[in-house]
Description:
The protein is of the alpha+beta class. The strands form two sheets. Strands 1, 2, 3, 4, 5, 6, 7, 8, 9, 10 and 11 form an eleven-stranded mixed sheet that branches. The protein has a six-stranded mixed β-barrel with strand order 13-15-20-17-19-18. Helix 21 (746-783) runs antiparallel to helix 22. The chain is elongated, with a radius of gyration of 34 Å. The model is unreliable at 178-182 (pLDDT under 50).
Amino acid sequence: MRALVFAVRRFGRDVRSGELLVLMSALVIAVASMTAISFLTDRIGKAVDYQAGEVLAADIRLSSGRKLDDSNTKLARSIGLKTVDMVSFPSVTFAGEASTLARLQAVTEGYPLRGELRIAASLFGQDRVAERIPLPGTLYAEPALLTRLGIDVGDSLELGRLTLQVAGVIAYRPDQSPGFSGLAPTILINMADIEPSGLLVEGSRVGYYQLFGGPPTPVRKFRDALQGAMPEGATMQTGAEEGSQLAGAVERAGGFLSLASLVSLILAAVAIAMSAQRYAERRLDTAALMKTFGASQWFVLSVGVIHILLIAAIGSAIGAATGYYAERGLSALLTGWLRGDLPQPRLSAMWPGVLSALVLLLGFALPSLLRLRRTPPMRVLRHDMAPPPLSLWVSYGAAFLAIGAIVAWAVRDTRLLVIILGGTAVTAAVLFFAGRALVAALSQLRGGVGVSWRYGLANVARRGSTSAIQVVAFGLGLMVLLLLTLVHDDLLDIWRSSVADDAPNQFLINILPEERESISELIDSRNLPSVGYVPLVRGRITAVNDTPAEDWPRGAGEGPVRVGREINLSYTDTLDESNTVIEGSFWSEGDGGEPQVSIDIAIANEMGVTVGDTLTFDFAGLAHRATITSLRTIDWDSFRPNFFIVLSPTGMQDLPQTFLNALFVGESDKDVLVELVRKHPSVSVIDIEAAIEQIRGIIDKAALAVRYVFYFTIAAGLVVLFAAIQSTLESRRYESALLRTFGASRRVVLLGILAEFSALGLLAGLCASLGATAIGHVVATEVFDLQLSVDPVLWLIGVLAGWLVVGVSGTLAARSAVETPPVRTLRGTG
Length: 830
């Protein structure tokens, strides 16, 4: 209790005197940066989960071949979920003498629960969000159906006993999917029209669905309840399992934000370490006096620990509040990041920032304060007596563990963790040895220069260890600033260019083999860029390594490919440029050997298979066994037709199949789509321009967000600079006082300080450029899968920035030492 009372009183005096300003500032910046990014990533994560449900038009979808009991919907509504019933089955529809097969989809009010239903007033006309499902007596239809029947919006068609009016063209439906089901275009009607139509009779091939959507907590509760009491014959799907087309882009954007937050965190840690060391050194006399009056080592240590906790509490509170309001501003900048508004973050998202404050202080500040307990009482009489230094394992080990724990928690990416920490450690070591080399070199050179330069270079040589540490501090600060300002711009530019201006924005699916020539003539007549025809087959994986699907323990149940479930596949003898083989080898063109298969690496990991394993497929009753010969990654940002599983052509050409193509169609050529579907009614056109624009928007918003977070980094860099200068401010005052007492002018002293910081800054800038280039290259290639070229301008800017930021700013910051009247300093009143 006595230690607590004394620590609080002493802490209050230190705060009022401003001695804790640098330490508190660094801590506030670190917490604010972590908290802001934590709040933002929490909101984005919730938004991505929300949007993932678009592929189902709901968060959870139950499906069955038999009518589902309404007890599920009652339970869902009781815990706050919205529900929609849906019935889907094929049916023939008529318009006069014309008829065609259609997929009838009847829904209740509220559809879709996730995503948007978009309709147009004419074929490929301007679309809008549908305010509601079709009214009874009306319908929405896909373009292919209208072209097959030769009708338009406003016309009527017959469904069973009913005659319904076409009220709109379906431009986008959240749960639409390519594949053979697209051969029958969809008609969306009101559930109230199903019974009067008389279409549902005994033996109908009908699918019954129940859709559920709502806040995350009730959704999880309902999902858990269903898993324990699944209706017989029913299957459950969730949006998280189906994935999101934007997940990759959002994940990469989150990586950029994490990188921006990390560099400000590392800078803040450096500033905390330097300011804590100075704070502890200024407490040595107090500790000696306390021990002279009978204070024990435990008492002195308790006071230091209490100070750490008080600093953590105050810095965390201010930093968390700053981070919260900073995130609000950042979210305002990110309007439109994903469709709809970002959900509100959980307050628990602030804990990473708060706990990081405590970890930073324990790792970077506590080792310095631990020295106080070993201060000899004789220091009261002899000020040159200092406590023995701590073991390097204690001081540096604690710091490395602290920053490692925070980075691992914040990033949760092992590669990025190793790159950032390893790169920082290596750069710090290079900077330290470069600083020692500079000290040794200047010891020989300073005799041949003028008075000011001789004084400045002598300061560098005289403060050997301190100068080397300052080079480390300045160099790390400059390195992360360069990494964030220049390298991150290059990364974002490369990312932008990965989504080309002429990336395919229209997918043509269900192209029959005999239609390819006619479609090619139409595409060539407009000089539209296309990727060519890609075969599409439907099949199921029935066995892995001859183990039946139902017995295979890892069926990729959380991903888009599941053992035993029907999936889309393709075959080719030439790998698309958007694919990269990372294990094994892809078969050569014209290889007519044994059937082979190539799988996306993520899907292979989920399925628990690798190169050398075998898969058995079922294609319309035909068994096909193939060996996995390669694993690959896919660049989904290319928007080219890609498949998780690709087979060699051996034995595939004679299977039932259709083709798909992808092309870029500008606004002036949209009429070609109308002509195409009128000539080829079986072809479905899927417009993905909205998805492309959204990903481009995510890239632009990510750049804006990183620049916003960059302000934290600038602030942290300034604190590092100020902390490094503050650590030598006392000795500079005495040196300046002595020099001016012996006749040196203020100008000579200031030029000497400029020479000192210029030498340190030039060396720090050179090493920082090296570190930024190396770390940026590794981060680009290993984390973001981008190719980064070395820009020589970076080195020039790094050296100039070192001279300007450290040399000029350091001189201005240390100017107060020169401005203090010598008499005040020598009398001990300055």
